[in-house]
Write a structure and sequence with these properties.
Blueprint: H1 3-58, H2 64-114, H3 126-134, H4 139-146, H5 150-159
Length: 163
């Protein structure tokens, strides 16, 4: 596989990940909009209960504690499903974040492994590397002198069974 092909594949994967993130983001925005409408309905209900409560306060036959308990029960019954939904959304986002991190890490590792030494393509100074190494020059110095990577020098020496 050529390096250009690999770069194109990686670019396609990254574009797909971006598309996936945006599609999930729009889905979460829809869910948040639904939650906002439920909260708005809850506020209306709360307003209705407060007005009802103020009407009852004028009538001394109703006990304040009962009204507040009823309000708390209604609010709790309405908020509990929202809370559960928000927790699930948060877990999904965290899971998606973990999966994206692992995918990015694996892509980075894959890209690092894809780089091939130039000696595979026949562009290396194999004879110079072997000559310098047999003269006692260390791998680091050979790498610096010939302007090639240390792993590439070691690769040439290994292929020629010198090191």
């Amino acid at each position: 596989m050529s390096l250009e092909y690999i770069v194109v594949v990686i670019a396609i994967v990254i574009l797909y990940l971006i598309y996936y993130l945006f599609s999930k983001d729009s889905e979460y925005h829809k869910n948040i909009h639904a939650i906002a409408s439920v909260v708005e309905e809850l506020n209306r209900e709360l307003y209705y209960l407060k007005t009802k409560c103020s009407d009852f306060q004028e009538d001394k036959s109703v006990i304040d504690d009962e009204i507040y308990q009823e309000i708390e029960r209604n609010v709790y019954d309405m908020v509990q499903p929202l809370s559960i939904g928000l927790k699930k959304m948060q877990e999904n986002i965290e899971d998606m974040d973990d999966r994206l991190d692992s995918r990015i890490t694996s892509l980075e590792i894959g890209i690092k492994q894809i780089t091939m030494p130039s000696s595979v393509n026949g562009n290396s100074d194999d004879d110079k590397i072997i000559s310098l190494f047999t003269k006692g020059v260390c791998v680091d110095d050979i790498s610096k002198e010939l302007h090639i990577s240390k792993p590439e020098v070691e690769f040439v020496l290994k292929i020629n069974r010198i090191k």
